[in-house]
Structure formats: structure tokens, C-alpha cells
Amino acid sequence: MLKLVQTDNGVFDLAFDAPALTDDFSAVETLVYAAIFTDAEAPISREPNRYERRGWWAAPAKGSALWHVRRQPLGSAARLETLAMIADALTAHGLTQVKVTELTGSEGNVSSVYIQATGLHNGRQFIVKVPL
């Protein structure tokens, strides 16, 4: 199970309440969804207006920058960028051997991507499928 813990003054993070549980899939799934759907601040080259860059005020680089990729049609370059951003966000949250792939069926759809994320969490393999 995940819990919110304070790591510093005004700084919070997710932590495992019982990492020795035999089935921590829901914890991994929560971590994957939180990493993907937490908005990171867009780079200045993508969004020059500081107030339009989004991002969580306390840690603008946390999470993925998926939201600003999704503001465009999801062509092949945007899809590859999406997969790379998700892999980076998951790795930054402590998951290892992360591999993010697009599931078949969403090719050619300019408004959605279905991904599968695999890797290791606390030495245990996980597979999470996420529609974006």
C-alpha cells in the first residue's frame, strides 16, 4: 500500500506502507498512474509563456511532460516522444528496467495511445497497461 509521507518542509512523496506484501500490484499501478498523469512543467521552447507551462508548483520537473505532447496530433514523432517521456518519469520514480511500448490497436489514431509499461519494482516484475 502507498502512503503520503513528508520528506522535508513542504515536500511530500509516496512511500510504501508494507513493501513485503505478497501482492503489491495496486501500489505499482498507483505509482505508474501518478508518474504519468502528474504534469511536469513544459520546456520554454515548447511554451514561452511562463503561466501556460503548467507543472506542480513545488516541483515543476516531477511527473511526465505528457500533457504538452498531447496538445498536438499524435503522429509517429509525438508517439515516440510520449513513450520516452513515460519511461523517463517511471525511472525517475525508482522503477528499474523500464520498457514502455505502444499496444497494437492505437496506431493511426491521432487522439489516443495505449501503452504497456513493464519493469521491476522492489525486484519484482510488473506490467501495467494504460490508455492515454
Q: Name the beta content range.
A: 25-35%
N-C termini distance: 24 Å
Total helices: the number is 3
Order of helices and strands: EEHHHEEE
Q: Look at the structure and give the mean pLDDT.
A: 77
Structural class: alpha+beta
- Radius of gyration over all CA atoms, rounded: 16 Å
Q: What would you call the shape?
A: flat
Q: Biggest sheet, in brief?
A: 3 strands, antiparallel
Provide the low-confidence segments as ranges: none
What helical percentage do the residues reach? 25-40%
- Biggest β-sheet: strands ordered side by side in the sheet: 3-4-5
Number of strands: 5
Write the layout of secondary structure elements.
Blueprint (H helix, E strand, L loop, with lengths): L1 E7 L2 E6 L8 H13 L28 H4 L6 H17 L3 E7 L11 E8 L2 E8 L1
Antiparallel strand pairs: 1-2, 3-4, 4-5
Properties at a glance:
single chain; 3 helices; 3-stranded antiparallel sheet; alpha+beta; 132 residues
Notes on the protein architecture:
This protein is α+β, with helices and mostly antiparallel strands. The model has no long low-confidence stretch (mean pLDDT 77). Helix content is 26%, strand content 27%.
Task: Please provide a brief summary of the model.
This protein is of the alpha+beta class. The chain has three helices and five strands; from the N terminus they run E-E-H-H-H-E-E-E. The chain is flat, with a radius of gyration of 16 Å.
